[in-house]
Structure formats: structure tokens, C-alpha cells
Design brief:
By secondary structure, the protein is of the alpha/beta class. Helix content is 24%, strand content 21%. The chain is built from 8 helices and 14 strands. The strands form 3 sheets. The protein has an 8-stranded mixed beta sheet with strand order 4-1-9-10-11-12-13-14, sandwiched between helices. Strands 3-2-7-8 form a 4-stranded mixed beta sheet. Strands 5-6 form a two-stranded parallel sheet.
């Protein structure tokens, strides 16, 4: 197992934490860890594939996926992002590493390449506003040295964790003990128990961001807003995402509640939209924005992401936010007026890496 040096640092159009930066504080803004997949995405399907037939997609893209979705979204919003993950030493793994390190400026010094281990792969099919996924992969061999990372974990302002029923990740408690603000989402509970007691690491979290279905099951409620209020009794800040309807949040420390409706867009592919939402919310939280502004920004970045292929490479940055703001509908301008102080005048959409049908061409086009 080897680690590669991570030296690339790309300069974002906006540093949302610029006014808050102090040389005495950690270099890293956000740390996260998880599995990186190679995502192959098919779009333009008129319906779900039918057994015994061949379906043709009108669009296809490839990009790093899994935890790479969140890491890329954070980096494109100007947060200094460190990712600890395993990469295969196949072409897929090399492509994902280079796309994240060289293309996005993500710090991979805590990641490692594993000889002989093939990269996990997900095929995602988007149709009727939803997606269906098929994945394949094997668990990465454990590192030779004690502990999951070279440092467990690095000093950082925040960390994003994915909680799992019945699972404890020691690094989460350690990060919280060292002063990191922990933001967490959660996956589907295959056991069907939906018991908050099965999420022991929730006690270390500042914010919990489940979707409406997950939140209502965990709280035994029939309304996303009621679910958020119930969760706010367990965690300082509860945020429940409601898809196209927007998001609702309750601050359990102050009693403040906020709700922001979703933005209507022509969606191409919803892959990674939840990760982009969390990244937008974390950005606003670390920058100290009001709760409603954090929700609005998170929803905006998620809406912009679904108009592109794939998960990681569909994530918007500040140029895309600026482009949307200059043409925003009049009815939305009061709600998003806080962008005036953030978006530099004259910022134009950058030429970004987007998901393309092939992993890479042998010669420049």
C-alpha cells in the first residue's frame, strides 16, 4: 500500500472563509473519509430497463463517485478539503486520484493506493426524475500501520461523516474531541429498525442532515417538519431535506426554525445532489451565515448540480453560482440577496471538468 504526495492547490473564485482565517487555525477546513467509486452514468432513458430487452441511453458520463461527490462539492465551494480513501492501482483508480487531486485540488495525503485491488464501480441509470444503481466492489484491505489514517484524523475545522446503523467510527469521536464540528448524514437502514439508538456517533455531531423519508422513519412521525423538531432534541441542529420541496431546519440550542423551498430546474441527473446539499450547508455553517441562508445556498447548489451529468463533476462552484445569481428570477432575488456580498462582479462560469463518456483520450482533442 502506498500514499502519493498531494501538492496541488487550486485557487477557487471565492474563499467563503477568507475573513475568518487565522494562521493559528488548522489548514484543513473539512475532512472526510469513505469509499471512492468510479461512476458510469446513463441518462436520457425514457423508462426503466425492461427484462430481456436492450435499452439505449441518449447520454453517458463517467466520473469519480461515492465519497468523491462530497469532497469535490466542498472543494469547488472554496473549502480546503482533505480526503482519506483507498484507491485501486488500476486505470479507474488512477483516473479518480488524478481527477480529485490534480483536477479539484483535494488533499489526498491521507489516502493510499493498494496494489492488486480493483476500484469499486457503480452504474447509475437516471430516468423519470430518479435513478437506479448497480454497484460492484470489494472491501479495501486494512492499512499495514495501526489506525485507518496516518494521523487520526488531522486537525480540521469540520468533518463530514456518514453514519451507519450499528456502526461506530472511532475517528468521529476523536475529531470532535479535537474541536472539529461534525456534520453527518445517514444511509438507508436495511435492518428496518430505524432506531436512533443504533447511531451511537450521533452524540458527537453538531448537525444531522437526513432526507425526509429517513427522518420520519427514525422519529416515527408523518411529517418532515415534525421529524426535524424531534431530531433537534437529539442533536444540536437538525436539517431535513425534502427533495424538490426544499429543506427544513431546527436549531435545538436556540429553538430557531427555518424553511426554504426548492428551486425548480430541468433535472438531468440527481446523482450526488444530496452530497452537494450537505457541502453547501457546511460552507454556510463554517462561514457563520444565518440558518435560512445556509439552507437556501445548500438548496441552490443542489439544484445547479442536477442539471449536469454525474455526482462529483456536476458539483457547482462559485462561477456557476454567480452565473445563476445574475439571471435569477425576480421572485427569488430577495431570498438570495446575501449572494451579492459573496459573488465577485464579472465572475464568469469557468471551464470545469465534467463527466464524459470515456475515462480519457490517449491524445488531446
Amino acid at each position: 500500500m502506498t500514499s502519493r504526495d498531494s501538492t496541488t492547490s487550486l485557487t477557487p473564485a471565492v474563499d467563503p472563509l477568507g475573513p475568518l482565517r487565522d494562521p493559528q487555525e488548522p489548514w484543513c477546513d473539512v475532512f472526510l473519509t469513505g469509499t471512492v467509486f468510479l461512476d458510469i452514468i446513463f441518462t436520457g432513458l425514457d423508462s426503466a430497463p425492461v427484462r430481456g430487452t436492450e435499452s439505449w441511453a441518449r447520454g453517458m458520463g463517467s466520473s469519480p463517485g461515492g465519497v468523491a461527490n462530497m469532497a469535490t462539492a466542498l472543494a469547488r465551494l472554496g473549502l480546503r478539503t482533505s480526503l482519506a480513501a483507498a484507491f485501486g492501482d488500476d486505470h479507474y483508480g488512477e483516473y479518480c486520484w488524478d481527477a480529485l487531486e490534480q483536477g479539484e485540488g483535494i488533499d489526498l495525503s491521507m489516502s493510499r493506493t493498494i496494489p492488486g485491488w480493483h476500484s469499486p464501480v457503480t452504474v447509475s441509470m437516471a430516468y423519470e426524475g430518479e435513478r437506479t444503481m448497480v454497484s460492484h466492489g470489494h472491501e479495501a484491505p486494512p492499512p499495514a500501520a495501526p489506525g485507518p489514517f496516518p494521523q487520526c484524523p488531522p486537525r480540521t475545522r469540520a468533518a463530514v461523516a456518514s453514519l451507519g446503523p450499528g456502526r461506530t467510527d472511532p475517528w468521529i469521536a476523536e475529531a470532535a474531541r479535537r474541536g472539529s464540528r461534525i456534520f453527518a448524514d445517514v444511509g438507508w437502514d436495511e435492518s428496518g429498525r430505524w432506531d436512533l439508538g443504533d447511531l451511537p456517533d450521533l452524540e458527537h455531531c453538531e448537525a444531522f442532515l437526513p432526507n425526509a423519508g429517513e427522518a420520519m422513519r427514525y422519529t416515527r412521525t408523518d411529517c418532515p417538519r415534525a421529524a426535524a423538531r424531534a431530531l433537534a432534541q437529539k442533536v444540536p441542529l437538525a436539517v431535513v431535506t425534502m427533495g424538490p420541496e426544499g429543506a427544513y431546519a431546527v436549531d435545538g440550542r436556540t429553538g430557531e426554525e427555518a424553511e426554504v423551498p426548492g428551486i425548480t430546474v430541468d433535472a438531468l441527473d440527481p446523482t450526488g445532489a444530496g452530497d452537494v446539499f450537505v457541502a453547501g450547508f457546511v460552507t454556510g455553517a463554517l462561514a457563520g451565515w444565518p440558518l435560512a441562508d445556509r439552507l437556501a445556498f445548500a438548496g441552490l447548489t443542489a439544484a445547479l448540480s442536477v442539471q449536469e451529468f454525474g455526482g462529483s463533476l456536476s458539483a457547482p462552484g462559485w462561477p456557476e453560482v454567480a452565473h445563476w445569481w445574475r439571471a435569477a428570477p425576480e421572485a427569488l432575488r430577495p431570498r438570495y440577496g446575501f449572494l451579492d456580498a459573496l459573488v465577485p462582479p464579472g465572475t464568469e462560469p469557468a471551464s470545469r471538468r465534467r463527466a464524459v463518456p470515456t475515462i480519457g483520450f490517449r491524445h488531446p482533442a
